[in-house]
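Quarterly update from the structural biology core.
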Amino acid sequence: MNNVKLGVLLLLILCFEPVFSQVSTITYEITARNLSLEAVDSYPQKLISHQKEDSLHRIIVRTFAAYEDTVKRKIVVNDRYIKHKAYPQNIKKYLEPTLLTNYSHPEIQNIADSILNMNDSLTTEIIKRALKYSSKRIAFDANLAKELDKGTCTTLAVETILERGKGTCSEYTNLFIALMRRIGIPCRMAVGYIYMPEQDFQGSHAWAECYIDNYGWIAVDPQNGFMWFPPVAIKLFHGKDFIDCNINTLPDMYPVGIKILE
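Predicted structure, tokenized:
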């Protein structure tokens, strides 16, 4: 589902702070057997058109690097963490544990307590520490990635992940989601496709999105430990966990065709 090359490429892109005078967009045309129109049409992405032909979806979606939106970025940077903040039901559900993201494991509880005991009231600092923990706690499992890519298995639950000490991008994400929900920050899974033709790379990826008041959902990468995604990451699904994303197996979500229009 993911490999070391992907992490290196994304990190290289994010090492360079944007210098554009205005937000630069990328427009994709995607043909896929399975996708979520709600997920596709969520900030910073915008669904331009959608057609259904037989069993295939054909969409045009425009996106940009959310980091370049300086007005909205300030909301994220200045947000203050409140442990028992009240959320509407459509957001509150992303605080609930699932079979894959159960946060009752003693290690999750201990790490959550240690993060909050550092007395930093900025939400981004708490998220960054949780990302660091998740990215370092387990090792990448290339064999599991191959099985996921073939559709012969699915993502593992937090208890199994901690016991095995390794996983793929979806396992890093499950671990991070459990930690965020234990801390009290709404968090959901995102699954999509990384498309970098200039680097001769494309492939599926799973990441997380944290909810911040007056901003919405910010993408973070638990496997590689960073915030703010480049526009080469195209979100196709989101949900409380992989099961809630309604993806049967990874091959079911792979685009049949994808190209950059502008």
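The two ends are 27 Å apart (CA to CA).
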